[in-house]
Records
---
Amino acid sequence: MTSYAEPAAGAKKLGLVIDLDTCVGCHACAVNCKEWNSGGHSAPMTDLDPYGANADGVWFNRIHTFEAGEGPDSRTVHFPKSCLHCEKPACVEVCPTGASYKREEDGIVLVNADTCIGCKLCSWACPYGAREFDADEGVMKKCTLCIDRIYNENLAPEERVPACVSTCPASARHFGDLGDPQSDVSKLVEARGGYALMPEMGYAPVNRYLPPRAGKKAVGCTGAEAELAKPAETAGLHPLLRWMDKVLSR
Amino acid sequence: MSIRTAKKGAMKMPMDGTGPHEIELSPKVSDEVKCTTCYMCACRCGIRVHLRDGRIRYIEGNKDHPVNRGVLCAKGSAGIMNHYSPARLSKPLLRVGERGAGDFKEIEWDEALDLAEKWLGDIRASDPKKLAFFTGRDQSQSLTGWWANQFGTPNFAAHGGFCSVNMAAAGLYSIGGSFWEFGEPDWERAEYFLLFGVAEDHDSNPIKAGLATLKQRGAKFVAVNPVKTGYQAIADEWIGIAPGTDGLFVLALVHELLRADRIDLDFLARYTNAPWLVARDDGLFVRDAAGAPLCWDADKNTAVSALGADFNPRLVGEVTLADGRKAVPAFELMALRYLSPDYAPEAVAERCGVSAATIKRIAAELAHAAFEKQIVLDQPWTDWAGRRHEKTIGRPVAMHAMRGISAHSNGFQTCRALHLLQMLLGAVDTPGSWRYKAPFPRPCPPGPKPTGKPAQVNPGKPMGGMPLGFPLGPEDLLLDDDGQPMRIDKAYSWEAPIAAHGLMHMAIRNAWAGDPYKIDTLFMYMANMAWNSSMNSAGTAAMLTDKNADGSYKIPHIIYSDAFYSEQVAYSDLILPDTTYLERWDCISLLDRPIGSAEGPADAIRQPVVVPDRDVRAFQSVLIELGSRLKLPGFTNADGTPKFPGGYPDYIVNHERKPGVGPLAGFRGVDGDKAGVGAPNPKQLERYIENGAFWRHHLEPDQLYYKHANKGYLEAATKLGLIDKPEQIVLQIYSEPLQRFRNAARGIGAIQAPPEHRARLETYFDPLPFWYPTFEATQIAEAEFPLHAVTQRPMPMYHSWGSQNAWLRQILNRNRLYMHRQTAADLGLADDDWAWITSHHGRVKAQIRTMEGVNPNTVWTWNAIGKRAGTWGLDADAPESNQAFLLNHLIGELLPAKNGYRYSNSDPVTGQAAWYDLRVRVEKAAAAEAGITSPRLPDIATPPHMPEHPAVLRYGSEWKPQ
């Protein structure tokens, strides 16, 4: 078992805010993540049987698409999922070697590949299924929140965000300090009613999801009437007559 | 120092006492970064390619680039895996076995080019049209079309005929622009956005970014599509319309707007041909002696030139002209048609699968957005007649449509209906509406006309014009002296008069059948016609291998260029292996398919970011070399030496289509300081590279809207070489070119249609948009094939080139047939059942997945996942060949016989392939039939020396920070 210090009040809690209102399920984040991390901190993102019957690789971020509800009001949801960097990470608690750990300075949950023995206890413990076992290397891997990008002095300051955030075409991914109530991401969560995934489990995930906005469908949703009224002054007249004496300018 | 250490005090040490975890926080990313243009799909995003140790470390979006502004989709991010794909060809190949078997030997480039030169030279010296030159998802059509012209064959087209020519042609004939590369919604200002059909594969990043902007702003987004997948999933409102009925839905909206008189009359009078007088007798515009169309000036009570300004045009009322002919404004014809009860919401609701109340509400919302939410910008501008407007008025209703609308046999008229709706709302190139992307607008239709009349096709000579163009009437058709098609695909014949992109989907069929004549060589580039790019895929493969009695192939020679071992490679005789997109020069040209925006014209280049490690050559350079070897005038100096010895980059810089106008518009002139028009600049490519591989020109603020009638814009566009003259581009509600073809069917005019085609021309060449049932549905027993079947485009993939990708195929490497849960239940089907899907043409077997978000009368699947075993560098047991399937096998390239004749399965106006007209029935397969998809065609052998692909891919492990 590995113990960890729970973040103190006001501690930095880096994480992602994912907007389910604009995520179109395009997989850009997932593939760009795989691409960046292929040469990154946890490289490689091993792919087994990549050109065969059972292609199966390491992905830190996976997109699940499902339908919720039935009938015309059913909703198609695209749900990107990666490590939520919990404040009480079960994966760290169960790790027998201390390979899984949570950084105090920013809250990122990482795996030390040198001490990971590949026992998979963490993946059994993680309630979100966010761990990725590299069977080729025999170690557990996971989202690093692009720790090799976000502090990387070889990158321009504006590029120091996780690859998934940088590449998202629909601006559905945001990165920042969720421990700081004044941060842009905290304000976004506040404004949009962002929520934690399965908080009842008690792992206190840092990442937040923004719920879909209510769709504008009902009569009056844009301020328009239910249907267009016939012009009163032309009642009973041939419909073309109303355009007969219009004064126009070419 | 960039090495930081996890704080010991914050964390218990591991129990075994090993040291803390050291993390390299600032690892080196790359040795260098090169900017180029993505080609993982046709979106043409700017990319920054990070190189390390000569290999590709990382590809990201270019933040400065006008198309993607830094973002990159799944396809673009997976470019590494396409580039290093084991399916890459490595050397020219010559077929040694039977076509389709995959038996090849490697040959040297000299031998390959000698052979191509011999075949092509013989054709050119005898009958140039015996070369059929068709390119697929190619973005260098201004080069390939020009090459065909120089060769002298009319038989050229790219893939537009089976992609979205209905969209392009209808737009160009109606508003001088269209969607996608022709125009874009004003995402920043639109209040209401209508998205029609499947749109996920084109303009992919800008649309995603735009939808996010719209939603953040609180604008309403309505998605009209039988299937609720990607973009539809985030729409405020999803209209699960019946396939092929969008035109009816749109014209019901038009009916409502006209009924309530909620249309922009000022816009119609000033910017469209609504007031132009249509003669009662021949349906053509009444013109003055100079050829100008006429309007009726209500103040002066006389006919005046419609091209003038400052008069009061009448929109309704028949007039009698000086010569006694009767005429009526086009507006009146239009209004009467759509006020008809046939287009009332109640009349169309059942057919569209959309309630009358919904149609009425959406019409009300459109009108409300356009008129109650009118935008007034404090931006003065000057119209074409020199009148200054202090404000710029906006109608914030925007639209986008793509293949879902286009790929029907009623697609052209449906697209026209969409543009009519835009015009009635005054929502064309205004703040908040759909806006032209430079170089559009162009005159409706733009020039030039197609080339390939008998007098233009001569041995050993260029044609004198580009093969593809825009006919204005029957005199522009390409017919031989007997009235038969000049082109192998029958484009610009009575069967497809406005086939502005050709009919690539008919080229193989017609070449095989010798209808209208036999050809010698089929030369193709980047087009998987033996598989997922053809209708009737298995039948097409059989045509490619069919032989004459003497044992020779019906299609004698097939030359093909592709970077990968696609199905089409196996069905070709001579393979010219292409580079990947990261190994080549290229230009994304204003002469072709540029990347301009509403803010101004733009173009871009590709530069080689890595050197090929195989014996491959960029197709465009090979084409230029063949042009020189064949002594084609455009590719040869007067002394017989090659004009572009440096290949494609040499051509990009030095070719001039007109004086001062070349493939790239930026950094022209000897000093690189000219935009649009200027002498070739020897340093042009260097300048592009310095600028991030693209060039853009920013229009002035007073040039940004009403470009079709904006003097400042029209003059600037003329100066930039985008249009020929700074004249108003009048939008066409009533299409006179269509009426000219209709007249030819009515026996009016010098050129008359043959009797057998008259009824068809009379019906479908209606100068006003109308809706009619799609062809297949009317020619089969609907009760026998009660369901529509369509494909959708998975966002992470782009046709077969994407679905071989080691990363992308982990997202999608098999496809189900999706159907509505209730529909499935009614048929006794459940999730995971295997079923036969049968059309009038054939049947396939696939596994079922039920869902809610689909029109109940529609089944669908993902496009182009299925592959032939043995191709694309995949194992023979890969799911792509036994768990995936193509709907293509169900789609005939010919319609069922009608009056003894089988027309192509195409739109009657443009020849656009009608993929989405497909009708099927679905039946549960027997238990013993479960397990694999059908048909499974024989495995294809692998050419020599294709690389072994790895069992484990550890890409990037060498760069792991230590």
---
Amino acid sequence: MALLQISEPGLSAAPHQHRLAVGIDLGTTNSLVATVRNGISVVLNDEAGSALLPSVVRYFEDGGVQVGITAQAQQSVDPQNTIVSVKRFMGRGLKDVGEVIDLPYRFVDSPGMVQLRTVAGIKSPVEVSAEILNVLRDRAERSLGGELVGAVITVPAYFDDAQRQATKDAAKLAGLNVLRLLNEPTAAAIAYGLDNASEGVYAVYDLGGGTFDVSILRLSKGVFEVLATNGDSALGGDDFDQRIYCWILEKAGLSQLDAKDTRLLLTHSRAAKEQLTDHVQTQITAVLSGGELVDVTLTRDDFYAMTQNLLARTLQPTRKALRDAKLSVEEVKGVVMVGGSTRMPQVQRAVAELFKQTPLTNLDPDKVVALGAAIQANVLAGNRSADDWLLLDVIPLSLGIETMGGLSEKVIPRNSTIPSARAQEFTTFKDGQTAMSIHVVQGERELVSDCRSLAKFELRGIPAMVAGSARIRVTFQVDADGLLSVTAREMNSGVESSVTVKPSYGLSEGEITRMLQDGNQHARDDMQARALRELQTEAAQLLEAVDNALQLDGEALLDAESQLRIRNSMEALRGVVSGSDNSAIKRAVEALNQATVIFAQARMDRSVSTALKGHNLSELEG
Amino acid sequence: MKSLDFQQDFFRLFEIPPRFAIDNAALDQRYRDLQSQVHPDKFSHLSESEQRLSMQWSTRINEGYQTLRSPLARGRYLLSLQGVDTQEETNTAMPLDFLMQQMEWREALQDAIEAKDMDALDVLSDNNRKETAMLQQQLGAQLDESHDHLAAAGSVRKLRFLEKLAEEISSAYDELDP
């Protein structure tokens, strides 16, 4: 056996290396990346000094890709190949994508998720998002000078399972290790809460470019507990632009614009909206491709009137979240404003009226989510003791199963704290029925057709029995990312079937691999080399984690033989980790994971006991 | 020290006496202490087996907390520990006066929805809350003092009715919200 490195008890083997981790706000309009540097969360700028990366991706015929400000500048020139606000299409089918007519894209309907036809071929929203993430990863690695251990990616709290899964897939495609999907309002609360050491109930009102979220949180002694969340994952600043756009068409007597003119006027609409934040009226002047001149004046009052019902669509979920949290407006100590769209004066006024207090805007509403995500990424990567605070988040929408008559039977109700699991028993409908189809849905409505279909799978091989006598236990497990997996088991025979809720809309591992290998990974590192480096990083992390655990608890919790077994597995992994044999490393990682199962169990038991320390343990023995 | 059993009951897990009357503040505190030890966020940089165990434990602690925090779920759970099935789906025998009152309230709910009358909803919601509090007190006495399991199961069934009504009132609020 090779010599082991031995260090003083209580000291780690090597001076603790700072693990590079980032928080990424993958926004509808802009995306950002932030990290914790010298204990402070900072947004990382690009070479030109700007923090915001416009979430715009332009595809070229030769397979080239442009992301950000340069792509944004060309959106009116090449609208069909320049994808903006792709977040609205994540995990969405063609029929879900509202107001498609006014978007200058060539949509391709495909099972589960809509796709976009570009000069570089058909692109899935996951691929487009991966291009944005890729730029941010590059920016971070260049700025931090090393490979990232992982990233926390934020998602709207009201994103359903399909949208969350799509986001995670995009991150994988961009070569990022996802430490956690974090809800945007919760990320904002971390940034605010830790800054201000606040206690009490807070509301986070987050109106972004394409999504609206509201979360009610209780902050106390370092615990961030989400009590309720609500929102609309298809409502944001873009809709305010659309209203102005439609008004221009009407005012100027225009109809049926081509893609370029549509994009041109949408761009002008956004500029007008931003102007009206500081001015009572604004002039909109544009020359269309046919030479027609558009020249109209929009007043703030008219803008407020035409967007009043959009605003109402944010206030209703807000009241609902308060009711779900069983709280009155008076019990809310502060309201945090997040998202660029909260700069609109009518939004601030309406929120102030509802909560009877001036909302907090002291952190930049565009950056607060990324800053909070970076703080959480730093903890999850293991850079600082996580004892400081605890995040308890919830799922936004109920998860259920289709029962007879097309009704949804809720298995896990909305606002359940995650991770969460629930089992429910179902039975057969016909005599001799040997298979059962399980349809998993998400949403609050009673009819399955009004809910989002997440997955369908079959449990086969049920022994033939009289109707109603089979006992099929369906277990839902939602993990800390808010992602669902489902297991079904016939209790009399033990026949089992399980699914990670993915197939009916998401990408299979195979598809991701194919995309990774596709030629459209333009100007990217050799994927093989990248995969190897990731594997090596993962292995090194595992070795470090096990090494630390052994030093802390090995003697106390394991006998000599078990310790030796683990050390042998570690040696085996050390022996292959710097080589280039991917599968050998994978096998060694797997073996080490296997060898530490019992140890992990013992450590977990001890953790739970620690939480109960100070109490009479003999009470437990009972 | 005995290894902690994943199957141990929730009262033991949270180290509070198995009674209906509980100290909510102590339960909240214990919940936070336990989650601070086992939550997946504390294990994301550790090995796969530790991550999996952490999710299982954290899930279990959430389940236990939900069960003990809700009076109805706690009552039902105490009875199940005694081997008593509350038969909420099968036993529909209810005292006549209770049924009459339920029917009245459901009619009042329908009327309030049709008339879009938020004030009427407030009244109904208030009545339902008071009745719920009264029944919870009754359930507490049956479980902790007279140890009358059959009567307690009856109270659980009534409380389930009231909980369903509360859910319907809540969706009525959502529906009437401008």
---
Amino acid sequence: MIRTAIIFVVLLIIMRLMGKRQIGEMQPFELVITLLIAELACIPMADVSIPLLYGVISVVTIYVLHEIMTLLDLKIKPLKSLISGKPSVVINKNGIDDYQLKKNNLDVSDLIESLRTSGYFSLDSVDYALYEANGTFSALPREDYESTQTSLPLVIIDNGKYDKKNLELLGLEKSFFDEILRQQGIKKEKRVLVLTADGTGKLYLQAKGEKFKTLQTEYPGGKTW
Amino acid sequence: MVKSLIAIAVSALLLFGAALFEWFYVEDQFEGFHEELMSLYLKTQDETASGEDAKAVQTAWEERKEHLHIWIPHNDISKVDDYMSETVRLVAEKEYPLALAKIEIMLHLSCCLPGTYRPGIENVF
């Protein structure tokens, strides 16, 4: 009984520390319970030298812990955020919240992937985006978001580093974007949280700790995609 | 909420009851087994033990273990089974010094096995 409770608490802490990347659509403690019950039920079934009662006792202990957790989750507000976590607003009116991303062990490319899965291809298509406590992604689109999605944006700079693959794909030089950064008062690429470019010449630029900007540019040779 | 609280209380009581029952039951069974072994040990020491004496202890153990299977790992039971079989053979053949060694191991097991089911820090970690 005590061993089961210890494993439960340890797993719950670990899942909470791991952030939202590790969980699907369940609350962290529900995922922990699912993981444990599967194992606890399996071991006495597979190993005949262990009395079946051991599995039953452990599963009942898990049930009691689940009921206690659910009660705490519903009745005590401060504990709810401790047990289940809080939603993390990763995009707001100022752009991407780098702190919230890092807190949940995510990076800009994960965020862009989540946006695409939700049907938003450009970072400026949404006013707000958040990862819910159960790990799902929600976004509030801009009123005119469909007009911002004219071409597929590609990541040029992700967290201070050029994406060489995308540069090659576009056939554009690093110096072209360096020049744009200089014009925006950014001397080093390391200061850039994200820079995306779409086929119409629209750039989404956000320096670390600053509000995002959208710029319109023309690619060398009138390139589009 | 009242339903959840009742479910928690009932389940917790059941678990607590099961833990206490396991503790006392296993301890009681091994205490009885220890006494039977002790009398066989003393007879073996005096070299008066017969094959029937050892067989009687084995039969009593067989009865006990039927219920113990529910509560303790079967490997622990089979450990005692092995030593018990050897003891019966050795006592029947009057190999008393060798039989004493086997009985001593079983005496030790009957003392330490119930201890592994007691709620204690050494059993938790």
---
Amino acid sequence: MSLVESSVQFLFVALSVASVYLLVALGLSIVFGSLQFVNMAHGALYLIGAYVGLIVGFDVGFGGLIDRYGLAPLGLDLGFLAALVVTPIVVFVAGIAMERLLANPLYDRPLLDQLLVTFGVLLIFQEGFNLVFGRTGFNYARPGWASGPVLIPGIGSVSRWRIYVVLLALVFLGVLFAFYKYTDYGLAVRAGTEDTEMTELLGIRIGRPFLLIFAIGAAYAGLAGMLGGSLFGVNAGMGFGNIIPALVIVIMGGVGSIKGTTIGALLAGFVFAAVTQVWPSMATASIYALAIVVLTIRPSGIYPTGEIGQ
Amino acid sequence: MPLLETRNLTKTFGGLKALDDVTVSVDQGELVSLIGPNGAGKSTLINTITGMLEPTSGEITYAGTDLIGLDPFEIAQLGVGRSFQTASIFPELTVRENIQVAAFATEHGSFTVNFLSRRDSYDAVRDRTDHILETIELEDNAGAVAESLPYGDKRRLEVAIGLATDPDLMFMDEPTAGMSPGETEMTVSLIRELLADWNMTIFLVEHDMDVIFDVSDRIFTLNDGAIIAKGTPDEIKSDPAVREAYLGGEAE
Amino acid sequence: MSAEPSAEGDDDEPASGALETWDRIKHTERFVLVSALVFVAVFPWAFTSLPLVPNNLLAYDQLARLVLIWGIFALGFNHLLGQTGLLSFGHAMFFGGSAYATALFANHVVADPLLSVVVGVCFALLLAVVTPFVLLRLHTVYFAIVTLAIAQMLYYMAREPFEGITGGINGLGVDRSPLFGLLELGADIPGIFGALWGTYMYLFIAAFFVGVVVFITRVRKSPYGLIFKAVRENETRASFVGLDVWRYKFAAFVISGFVAGIAGGLLPMETYFTGVERLHWTLSGDVVMMTVLGGLGTVAGPILGVIVFLYFEGVVNGLDVIGGYWLLSLALAFTAVVWKYPDGLWGMITSVSSRLRSRRGDQ
């Protein structure tokens, strides 16, 4: 394998890992930054996305209660592409429900309470999914167009699916950025990040922009759940497995900043991919090490906004 | 030599000058007041002197000590106390405990290794606490949880915490804000008592002009971060710049 | 998060002199000591052989010992969150770190239980002294996440790079010799006391437990106890009365790590085993749940939380049909407590009893 080929492969491993984290971290970061709401239950949306994708796209031999009541195999079997389209929509709706039922009543509580309650909620989801769907892992069967290598002339072969994952993440990042920058709703959310007190006084906080941004963040997390599930497998523990690095990325990048969160995710992706090459067992640990170093140098993250937690 | 002195104190936030070349001095035993319209930089000045904010440039000396770069707790240990604009208390502790916290800091310094001795056994701390409770007339509520006090009492507790640090110089940030006329009168007589019996020097920020003109020895007027007038109450009353910037603008 | 009721609190109940006496003594250190002694004396019997309770609902001997060990851990954790208001999601570092240090000392130097635990505690103390230099500048969520990150780093390091000494994911068998070479802790206590307490190991652990309860109570009654609460309630105000908040937080962190380290050192002595899962963040999550569920900020609350948690994990888990729901029910209970009942199970008990009293006072 040429040096160029292995560097390009490395690049796409790094970018695809960063993409999955980024899609989860974006919603987490914006909600944390603008609403001062830290939501570990955001990981439940990632979890829901992965299972919704499975159920929409395939017919899955689940265990747990589904098997006990003779419902397995369960699923709509509409195929991978349909799952890719339907999942974010379903999780968008789940996001609206979460905002109304969970987040809204907790906005005025201290960060500590929010952290503990949403930790409990994610644990409920994890155990619930274990009981309903069984404790085994599941895998996405990717169709031909989303698997195998792509031959790039003059460079070599790169995993086709990883390219799609990166492209998808780029598109969604672009959409969010445009929403944030060029719409009135985006303006309200940005104002909320910079001066929560003022926004609260104006009564914007309870309004639709925040519900919408919460649900968009949820949809992204749902999509990430499907993408992450297709790359790393699906199980009920994946919500916690993803939300903790995502939180690390958010606070490392700077809470509420799209730029900071993107840079945090990229840093994490590259460090993860690099350490995987030389020391695979320490790949996940390297993200934590990175965060410890970054936050030791810059206690409020790379791009600090507002006064979160001060 | 003045007790507290600032020289050319400047503080900028981004491009905005919150304090612009502020030079003031306070003598031992004086009561000086700081007035100025909202947003003039009054709280910024107090926060900069007491160590909450780092000035962009300028000097602050207190009793010959340079205060620049010191932490708030170090400045408090030097004998500079403060009360806050909002009732900054320890809400879930009792009234007595609120004052005890400050009394410990005063009697035993910023940090002591005494985690194995009972706090009941510190007589000096108890005496100081009792004395403050008496002065501020909160002894009947000593066992109540601070959060449960009515607003005026919370403000008085906030001042009591400041007093318990036994300051030589006390910053009081709008001590009568939100108080009823009766409570305001009580606070004014407390201020007089502090000056007369406690030999305290007081730096007062107030909105109530009656209080200001009643108790102040000297008054500084701040506008847009800069001092526009200094003088006795009579001088300030008749100062045209003050009238324009402040008194004339809005009938308080 | 509630402060404990103040000792000075006057109750207007002239009718009941006994209750007044009760209010006076229930916060004294001697009362706490006596309660702790009575608790450790009676608890294993009540937990494992209470008459009239069906056998499958009773716990087993070892679970009683584990309750005391985890109780120590929860008291250490509570000292940080309940007293000082700092939420650590990485307390596994003290627990698992101390467990490894204890195990390695026992296996490679001397397998004396007391010495090994002391070595484990020293390692936990070392961690607790070093990590604040990174941690204590950080606020709430940042603090919680970075404590977790540090503990996870240790977890991954123990899992592979140091597999040779830690046994990696297979864990490590641990030696234990008789105490001071004289008393085999695994031996049954003779006579009636054996029926009450089982083996000498129970007494060994119980001694630490009572010691920790007494220590924690004394710290709470010292100036530190008050200042920790002041820092929790209003950090800015605390620094403006002249307190060096950083050092007090540091002290709280070290005390908490020290106590957690005792629990971590006792566990490998009890189970003859230690493993990387004792460094994992889920273990930190468990102690958060236990403490908050039982009742933050009190001494009895965290212990009650530990009893409930371990009872669900060790006994309810084994029951037919409902057994599989043990963790889900705990997660639901935990969430309900942090959302609506911040005083936890212990808070519910004390509020019921005070309601009963005020009703009696009305008559």
